[in-house]
């Protein structure tokens, strides 16, 4: 059995920081304190990821149906493509929307650039309620080259996962499924709803999957409160 390694306290690690030339004492002290917090955050993220990986088997999934651009219908189990894990993102681009959600678009743009690396480990599909051809046309206009889109057939998936609201609006969802033989089970899905948001914050999960927000969190002004990603600039 592997021995559990004792970690040095975060402040002790932060004390190894090399000060930048000409920084004053107040910056050095504040930056070292922040570095200790960042080390603690890194460790917390690792602990949460380990807890996620240790989840017991989730609920058994129905044979949800999906349509490809050639009209062929496949079941959920068919989307794994030889992998045992499927990552699926439901994006807000239903047939009633003229254009898709800007934030869904922003995130999928970053995934498109990483999809070949992602597929070395897991299968990845984008689920939408619009016809596949409509989804692909938008992707082509954005310059996306590698994402796989499928259209939901019927309402079982949106109903079971509460993705369609009574007013016709949609909720995005990132989900991870595991395949064991002929069985497909839910492993994990994003579950931080608007009701769980902290005061003054947009609803978001943790860790934040959007590179946009992670980059802006590094800046003096942060994410800001008076703007939102746009489809056009």
Brief summary:
The protein is built from seven helices and seven strands. It is an alpha/beta fold.
CATH class value of the domain at 65-189: Alpha Beta
Mean pLDDT: 92
Helix and strand element order:
HHEEEHHEHEHEEH
Assembly of the depicted chains: single chain
Shape designation = globular
CATH-scheme architecture of the domain at 65-189: 3-Layer(aba) Sandwich
For the biggest β-sheet, the strand order reads 2-1-5-4-3-6-7
Radius of gyration: 21 Å
Report what the structure shows.
A seven-stranded mixed β-sheet has the order 2-1-5-4-3-6-7. The protein is 30% helix and 16% strand. The protein has seven helices and seven strands. It has a domain at 65-189: Glutaredoxin, CATH 3.40.30. The radius of gyration is 21 Å and the shape is globular. It has 233 residues and is an alpha/beta fold. Helix 5 links the parallel strand 4 and strand 5 (149-153).
Descriptors for this entry?
single chain, 233 residues, alpha/beta, Glutaredoxin, 7 helices, 7 strands
């Amino acid at each position: 059995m592997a021995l559990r390694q004792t970690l040095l306290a975060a402040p002790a690690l932060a004390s190894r920081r090399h000060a930048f030339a000409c920084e004053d004492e107040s910056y050095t002290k504040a930056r070292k304190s922040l570095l200790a917090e960042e080390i603690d955050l890194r460790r917390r993220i690792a602990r949460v990821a380990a807890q996620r990986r240790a989840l017991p088997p989730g609920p058994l999934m129905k044979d949800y149906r999906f349509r490809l651009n050639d009209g062929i219908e496949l079941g959920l189990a068919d989307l794994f493509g030889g992998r045992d894990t499927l990552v699926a993102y439901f994006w807000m681009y239903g047939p009633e929307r003229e254009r898709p959600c800007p934030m869904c678009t922003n995130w999928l743009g970053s995934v498109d650039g990483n999809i070949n690396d992602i597929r070395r480990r897991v299968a990845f599909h984008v689920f939408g309620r619009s016809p596949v051809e409509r989804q692909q046309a938008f992707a082509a206009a954005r310059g996306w080259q590698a994402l796989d889109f499928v259209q939901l057939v019927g309402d079982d998936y949106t109903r079971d996962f509460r993705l369609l609201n009574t007013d016709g609006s949609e909720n995005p969802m990132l989900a991870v499924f595991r395949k064991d033989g002929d069985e497909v089970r839910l492993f994990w899905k994003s579950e931080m709803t608007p009701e769980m948001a902290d005061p003054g914050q947009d609803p978001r999960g943790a860790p934040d999957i959007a590179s946009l927000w992670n980059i802006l969190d590094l800046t003096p002004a942060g994410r800001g409160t008076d703007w939102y990603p746009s489809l056009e600039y």
